[in-house]
Design brief:
Strand order of the largest sheet of chain B: 2-3-8-5-6
Number of helices of chain A: 14
Low-confidence stretches of chain A: 1-17
Strand content of chain B: 15-25%
Radius of gyration of chain B: 31 Å
Number of strands of chain B: 9
Radius of gyration of chain A: 28 Å
Distance between the termini of chain A: 10 Å
Oligomer: heterodimer
Mean pLDDT of chain A: 78
Mean pLDDT of chain B: 85
Structural class of chain B: alpha+beta
Largest sheet of chain A: none
Shape of chain A: elongated
Order of helices and strands of chain A: HHHHHHHHHHHHHH
Low-confidence stretches of chain B: none
Helix content of chain A: over 70%
Largest sheet of chain B: 5 strands, antiparallel
Number of helices of chain B: 17
Strand content of chain A: under 5%
Chain lengths: 379, 448
């Protein structure tokens, strides 16, 4: 804090400034490193807990054993060198191989040791192979199955959340200007509708726009068969995106407008806003510099919480809209009891959340002049 | 007590609060009614019983009140029984004491514009050796008498009108229902409205022999809520889903907010490593994917609603809410009344539970009420994912069944809309009340 005071009082001294720049960089780097390490620890603990939950029924062990049995059996049956062996001899060979393979992978070790191996495998996204599911390219690697689905999920979350975020801030600002108007009252009246999750609105949207009006598709990512050229393909995806994105947006927009409008109103009754108005500043400038700036951190926090809840809530929305994202993959995995995919999906979620939390720290520092990256943690 | 009264008076000033409270009272009434009239075992039996429980109902029948909105009225299903006096039954003994005649009749007004899907007679006869005999006649409003069947009735026999090949032959058509309900002289094949009569003449050849009949009329519409793919009456899950949804929502909200508050209070009061630990746990919990863990628990262990409830509470305790409470507790920890309590030597637990937490109740109540809908929807969400309680009839389960059967694609909107509307009403009721409470307990919001 003291260095900043120095910076403000002696802006003409270039030497002080240079050393300051270095120290800021070092501080940010140190802060980033610490934050990354704490987040990694958090993710590690989270994933380890997940493994514990998933392993209590012995499921992870079963996955491993099944995998070994499949692999050894296949490799021995496919090997031309063993073709002349009698079935009994082959069986014996298979059993021996399985036993040695289990020993190699440590399945004969106690769970405490083994769980560490599962943890490292999970953290390095070495998620093993699915039991029943395959990716669209025919691979059984859980990592590929999940990575293949990630773009669709990001398309849906990204588009809907950006619209939601900027749309509600903009509308809330407009409403706070016209406080007490008809639209303002209407928004307040509608804010309890946000109690329902996106999939719930999805049902109604499918009913209205797909089943009755028949102008938008019921679900899915593209038509079948998909259009040939890239432009039409993109348009087609957009058409399929409308309903799920609209469900996500509608399910939270009224409450977020209401919350932010309330914040803006509270802040616009502060003395310094009155002062700015008295000075004769144009309303836009008052809004930008004296209302929006101080409320930004609160908005960002709300946004972060929204992102986190939406990421978890998307499983069902994707399921309802047959949107081929991570959520529906998880849902299918439940149907198949395909444990490796479920555990893998969990780990991807944990990573996504950790990345969000990490990025938010920096966004927060960018918007709030009182928060400096690195200085907060030392206090 | 006066504080309570004041709150109540404040509440009356908000139309949303009154509306929300009325909805909640209505739902509580439905819940109590459902629990009192349908015992748990009966609910499970009716929901999971199988064909022999549901056979009396038509498949995919929308609710009967659809007729209000239809220009052409569809027939509504019903069933009548001789055992409960729904059908008239007159026994006439003959000169031979062994032989007697049973005249079973039922007449009903048919005012709909299309014939029913099917009519079925379920005979239940009692005899030792000599099988009773029955002849069934159908009397139309214009006075024609149609011979349906003359047959021996073994112990339990079902007779389906439209599957009787001989009757089809006699009526010279495959569509028996059409033939029985239309005017033969009309060129358009319009349905003949008026009083139809079913007459069954049973003859028994033993002293204690008896014939009982159940007449099942499968129309296009059924009851107050309609039926699903498996012929189940949807009224049951709609009614019985209410107490389940309310119990889940209330218990989860209550458990979560109370435990969160107690943990935040303990953390701030003792400080040090306890506080640090709680904050770390909160951080880890943030990274743990809530829904995925619930899904895993549901898949690996049990889908019992009570286990899911427990896990939900456990995962929701260490949420961002704990930070909010912490900030407030840190402030009130320094207040003079806590100072005073400490000075006269009250114990730590006494300070936490008697002084710190009670002061937070006003903050707790709106948060608690507002969080109920999200838990109610969570239960439905899990059911929609196929992780609902396997035995309990719930709203989410109905939506899941409807989706699995493509109800929206096939235009069976009532199947999805009925539970969805109930869910929406529940969510709205609690959200509206919580919203008003928030404004009452948060004076800063009151004027805005």
């Amino acid at each position: 804090m003291s260095t900043e005071a120095l910076d403000a009082s002696a802006p003409s001294s270039p030497i002080v400034k240079k050393s300051l720049g270095n120290s800021t960089f070092a501080r940010v780097a140190k802060y980033t490193a610490i934050r990354l390490v704490t987040l990694m620890i958090t993710v590690t603990i989270g994933v380890y807990l997940t493994i514990l939950i998933a392993n209590m029924g012995g499921y992870v062990d079963t996955i491993m054993r099944n995998e070994i049995r499949d692999n050894t059996t296949q490799s021995i049956l496919a090997n031309p060198n063993f073709r002349n062996l009698s079935p009994e001899a082959k069986q014996e060979l298979i059993q021996k191989k399985i036993a040695s393979e289990e020993k190699r992978l440590g399945l004969d070790q106690p769970f405490a040791v083994r769980s560490m191996r599962y943890l490292t495998n999970a953290l390095t996204l070495n998620l093993g192979r699915a039991i029943h599911m395959t990716s669209d390219h025919g691979s059984k690697e859980v990592r590929l199955i999940l990575l293949e689905r990630l773009p669709a999920t990001l398309l849906l979350t990204g588009s809907s959340e950006l619209i939601l975020f900027f749309g509600s801030v903009f509308l809330a600002l407009t409403l706070s200007r016209k406080y007490g108007s008809f639209w303002d009252k209407l928004t307040i009246a509608f804010s309890p509708t946000s109690a329902a999750p996106p999939w719930f609105y999805g049902i109604f949207f499918i009913l209205i726009f797909a089943a009755v009006l028949r102008i938008l598709p019921f679900g899915g990512l593209v038509d079948s068969p998909p259009p040939d050229n890239t432009f039409d393909y993109g348009l087609n995806i957009l058409k399929h995106l409308i309903l799920p994105a609209m469900s996500v947006i509608v399910s939270s927009i009224f409450l977020s407008i209401y919350n932010w409008r309330t914040f803006f109103l509270i802040y616009s009754s502060e003395d310094y806003v009155e002062m700015a108005k008295a000075k004769g500043l144009p309303p836009r400038a008052v809004e930008r510099r004296y209302i929006l700036r101080p409320t930004m951190p609160t908005i960002i926090t709300n946004f972060a919480l929204l992102v986190i809840t939406l990421w978890t809530g998307f499983t069902i929305t994707e399921t309802v809209f047959l949107w081929p994202g991570l959520g529906i993959t998880l849902y299918r995995a439940i149907g198949f009891y395909d444990t490796p995919v479920i555990v893998g999906g969990t780990i991807i979620y944990a990573y996504l959340l950790a990345i969000t939390v990490f990025l938010l720290d920096f966004v927060y520092a960018l918007v709030d002049p009182r928060v400096k990256v690195g200085s907060g943690s030392s206090q | 007590m006066t504080a309570f009264k004041n709150t109540f008076r404040d509440l009356l000033r908000y139309p949303t609060a009154i509306c929300g409270s009325l909805i909640i009272i209505f739902l509580l009434g439905v819940a109590v009614y459902a629990l009192v009239t349908i015992p748990y075992s009966e609910a499970v039996r009716l929901w999971r019983g199988g064909e022999e429980v549901w056979y009396q109902n038509p498949k995919y029948a929308p609710p009967a009140w659809f007729n209000f909105f239809l220009a052409k009225k569809d027939p509504v299903s019903f069933l009548v029984n001789t055992t409960d006096g729904g059908m008239t039954k007159v026994t006439t003994p003959s000169s031979d004491p062994e032989i007697s005649t049973e005249e079973i009749g039922y007449s009903f007004d048919f005012t709909y514009d299309s014939p029913p899907q099917e009519m079925i007679l379920y005979f239940d006869t009692k005899y030792a050796e000599k099988i009773p005999f029955a002849s069934v006649r159908w009397i139309t409003p214009d006075g024609r008498t149609i011979r349906i069947v003359d047959t021996q009735i073994e112990h339990k026999t079902a007779y389906r009108f439209s599957q009787d090949a001989r009757l089809q032959k006699r009526l010279k058509t495959e569509d028996v229902m059409q033939a029985l309900f239309t005017d033969p002289n009309s060129s358009t094949g319009a349905v003949l409205k008026g009083q139809y009569q079913l007459v069954i003449t049973g003859t028994t050849f033993e002293k204690d022999s008896d014939v009982n009949v159940q007449f099942v009329f499968h129309g296009d519409l059924f009851g107050l809520a309609g039926t699903d793919k498996y012929r189940r009456d949807l009224l049951l899950p709609l009614l019985y889903g209410t107490p389940i949804a309310l119990a889940f929502g209330l218990l989860a909200a209550l458990g979560t907010s109370l435990l969160t508050m107690v943990i935040a209070a303990i953390g701030t009061w003792y400080g040090g490593w306890i506080d640090e630990l709680i904050q770390r746990v909160t951080e880890v919990n943030l990274v743990l994917p809530f829904l995925a863990i619930l899904i895993m628990v549901g898949t690996f262990y049990s889908r019992s609603i009570w286990l899911i409830l427990g896990v939900t509470i456990l995962l929701s305790i260490f949420s961002g809410q704990i930070e909010t409470y912490r900030a407030i507790f840190l402030q009130s920890k320094e207040s003079s009344y806590i100072e005073a309590a400490r000075a006269y030597g009250s114990s730590n637990l006494r300070i936490i539970f008697q002084y710190l937490i009670p002061r937070m109740i006003p903050l707790l109540i709106p948060a608690l009420v507002s969080s109920i809908p999200s838990f109610v929807f969570l239960e439905a969400s899990l059911a929609v994912l196929g992780l609902g309680d396997p035995v309990l009839p719930t709203w989410g389960k109905v939506i899941e069944n409807a989706f699995a059967d493509g109800a929206l694609y096939q235009g069976r909107y009532y199947w999805v809309l009925e539970p969805a509307v109930l869910l929406m009403i529940t969510g709205l009721g609690f959200a509206m009340l919580g919203f008003a409470l928030d404004r009452i307990f948060n004076p800063r919001l009151r004027d805005i």
